[in-house]
Every structure is written in structure tokens, then in C-alpha cells.
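Researcher: I need the complex structure. Ligand is arginine. Inputs:
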Amino acid sequence: MRSLYQSLEKIIILTFEETFPEANLLAKKLGKRLDPQLVPASKSQFGDFQINGAMGLSKLIQQKPRDIAETIVKELQKNSEFKKICLPPEIAGPGFINLRLQEHCLKSEIQKRLNDKKLAVPVIHKSKELSPIVVDFSSPNIAKEMHVGHLRSTIIGDSIARLLEFRGYSVLRLNHVGDWGTQFGMLIAHLKSVAPQALETANAFDLGDLVMFYKEAKQRFDNDEAFQVNARQEVIKLQQRESKTIKAWKLLCDQSRKEFQEIYNLLDIRLEERGESFYNPFLKKVIDDLDRLSLLVTDQGAKCVFLDDFKGKEGKAMPLIIQKTDGGFNYATTDLAAIRYRLNKKPAGDGACRLIYITDAGQASHFAGVFQVAKRAKWIPKDCSVEHVPFGLVQGEDGKKLKTRSGETVKLKDLLNEAVNRAKLDLIRRLKEEGRTESLEFIENVSRVIGISAVKYADLSQNRITNYQFSFDRMLALQGNTAPYLLYSLVRIAGINRKEGNLNPQSINIDYSEKQEWNLIRELLKFDEIILQVEAELLPNRLCSYLYELCQVFNRFYDQIPILKSKEPSKSSRLLLCRLTADTLKLGLNLLGIKTLERM
Ligand code: ARG
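Model: Output:
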């Protein structure tokens, strides 16, 4: 109810200012405005909104907050604009003012959403000058395992990108894959020795399982001196862009890319690959410019910037290493070059204004260091921001690192397939119990949607900052805050639609009288505010909690009052609430990257 909130806030601020002119003057001197602290009601029994500002004001003018609240209420009651929106306010506790909206306002808010695909969420109007937002997510490393940490980044990043896109921003979804570095020396040397033919033919060559390949190369590197020499030479050739070495490098990247793409296809997630190698031409300038700005210090042969406010043991300032002793560049150098490129105006860069990085919390100090150096070098313009959006670890049900029964790391593809297979077994069991027969196609589709949704939702519904325990049983349950529960609520509504054939009755004269109806209306109307809140905090779990609550309120409405058996105008009015619930759930789930079903 953003727009109602804004109209109300305007009225209330004015009332505060006019009723307490001395306080207003005082606030102005401090360069502030009086803040009535209008917020959504903390509990629904208190109404729709509450004004908490009497407490703060009382300190400013030495009056009892309760007296202030009474004065404000009296003034508001004289205001015809206010009375159009709210019922007479009530004062609670030390001086909270509870506001309840007029029913006609709630009804017209419902109407507004019935005619608006965006469900009254305010959207930014695209203009040519609007700078894009970079969301840097997923970002696995070539020839290495894409692990559960990358899965979390992929799922959270996609949902944040979707939300920003929905709000009207243009979003660059960047996959900052680790496709450069000294490890390629040993990989290329190994490739040249085990599959020289791969470098001769123009045809695509299947390298098979790259993770095994990486392990073999590493083992040779650790045990074979001649191989080490070879590998080092390959690093140099790679930097010099020697054609055969580059071909080998490309083969390795292509193979990994194919494997990553399988995961993205399963998850139905779109990303633009722009790996670390892209920034190679800009690395030297990072060093040169930091040097010119006198930020660079050579410490034991390495070039680094000493960080303010980052103290190591013994209270010494910590360095961010930008060029290693051997002259090589590292992860931080690349990230600094990437910041500059992304914030640079087009065509020398992406012209972005906001950079969002989604990685595990373990990288927090890396990003803090990189951001600090970029700020000190003045590479982040005033109106631009850089943010690290951290998340916790994925753990097994025992609270330890997620592993297979035999103790190996879990392959993402296996993990996703297992979710789908388990969903399929559940579904087949349920169909049998209900005596239903369904086509193979139905079973395949439903189990794929449920399995993948369950994995995504389980991840998104946790506050991302905390570690999260991966449990197939929990995420696939039909009860609780799970994807299957939400999907099932939608299926219930689709069922009403099938029976009635129409959730869009023409009756415009909507009429509500039951408590369950009003509860559902109030819940539905929270959607726009929730979306803005998720955007402000980049916490998709808030959207999940909201959708879960909405389903619970809807299911109470559905179980406790008749819909199809009720008389007009109640019947049409209730059908409209069903439709709006379905629209809200579908949009909310879509923003989480979750597909929905008509039947399951
Ligand atoms: N490749 C890194 C990893 O696997 C993540 C990269 C995140 N993005 C960035 N710009 N540093 O840990």
C-alpha cells in the first residue's frame, strides 16, 4: 500500500509540523524534518499503520508522549483528507497511534491490483540515461567443481536480478568465471601430453570429466619436476598468447562451460559469461595508477596497498596484495580492474552505477579490501555504489560440510537430479493414493518443477547470512514453508478456476463482510511494500516468508468460508480475491525464479 502510505505520511507530517511549530523550528535548525514514524502495524489487531513519532517528539519538547498523541489525533480528526482514508485513530501504550484504513480504501486498492500486472509495485521508467546494475553471481572456476556455494550464489543472484529487472532496472547478469591463472599451466601441459590430437583437429573434442582431469594434472605437478617446468612454460606462453597454448586453454574453457551450462539449464537461469581473462588488458593500468596515486607499497617483493582499519595480529595494518613477488597479478587485481571497467562510462566500460557481488561470507574481507582500495583511488563515483552480498555455508543435515554417503563432495548435477527423482517418487505415491492416472509427460514435468523449486526455495527462504542445512525431506514436504506447499496453494486456486471456469467475474460491485476476507485483503495489499523492502535489503527470504503467510491466510479463507456455494455479490467478490491471491503468488514465485503449476 505504498501509495496510500505516501498520501498518509504527507498529511501526518504536516499535522506534526503545524501542531508543534516550536519543535518544527528546532528540527529545521538541526537540518531535519519532524518524523512521525509512520510504519505498517506491528500486529494486525492494531490496524493497518501506526504512528510512533510521539515518543521521539516528547524528548524534543518535554511533553508526555501520550498527551502529544492525543493532540495529534484531535488534529487528524479535523482533517477531511485524513478522514477519507482512516477510521478514528486509537492511542495505545505510552503514545502509539494506531490507524485503521477505511474499507472503501482497501477495496479500491484491491481494484487497482486487479487491473495491474505489476500489482501496484512502483516501477522505474526506463530512460536512456538509466545506468545498469551489475549483479556478479554464480562465477564458478574453470576445470574445477562447481560446488554448493556456487549453487547458492546462482540461486540468490538470479532472484535478486529478477527483482531488480521487475522494478525496471536494466541488469547485467555477469558470470565472473575463474578462467585465468597459473593453474592453467599444469592443465595445458597435461592436455598437451595426454590428448595432443585435441589440438590438431578443428572438431570439438570431448575432454570428459574435467574435475578428474584437474586432479590428474595436479598430481603430476606435485610429483614430477620435468612436468613442473613444462607447466611454468605454459603459463608464460599463455600470457604471450601463443596460439597452441591458447587453443588448449579454449578447449578447457569450452568443456567447463558445457558442464556449467547443464546446471544453468536445469535451473533455468540466464547469465552472461565474462570471465577473469576479459580484464587482462586492464591489469597493468591498475598497478600503474595505484602507483601514481602513491597508494602502492612494495613489501617483501610484492606490491600492495595497506588497508585502513584492517588490523592483523600484533595490530599491524593488513595489506591487499595487488602484484605478487613473481610479477603475477591475482584475484584482487582482477576485481579492481573489473570495478573500473564496470563503472566506466560506455564505450570504455559498462556505465553501471551499482555493483552487487554475491559470494559466500568467506570472501567478505577480500571485497572489503578491494572496495576500500577502489574508493581511495577514487574509482567509485559519488553516485555509484559497490556492495558485497554475502551468504552462509551449505551444510549437510549433520551440520557438517555437505558430502555424499561415501564422503565425497556432492556433484551439483547429481544433487538436482536427486531432488527431481525424489519429487517423482513422492508424486507417484500420491497419485496412487488418490487413485489418479496421469501421463508420463505430466509426471516428468511436475516432478521437475517441484524438485528444482524445492531446492531453490529452501535456499532462498533462509536468511542468506546464516548457514543453511540441506535436507531433501524438509524441502520436499507438502507442509511448512516449502515450495511444494506454495505450489499446492496455487493448484487449489487453479482448481476453483477449472470448476467455475472464470476467476474474472464481471461484477464490479465487490462486497466483503467476513473476517477471513478482510484478513486476506490486508495480506494481499502488503505485496508492494514487501518487494520494496526485499530490494532495499537484498533479502529474498522476506519475500518467501510473505508468500508463506499469504498462503496460510488464503487457506484459512478457503477452508472457512464458502466460495462457489455463496450467493452474489459475495461469490464474485471472493472469486476475485482468489484470482488476486493466485496473481500475487505467481508473481512472487516468479521473482524467486520458481515455475508454477496448474495441477500437481
Ligand atoms: N570464482 C570465485 C569463486 O569461485 C567467485 C568470483 C566472484 N566474483 C568476483 N568478482 N570476485 O570463489
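Model: Summary of the prediction. The longest strand covers residues 302-311.
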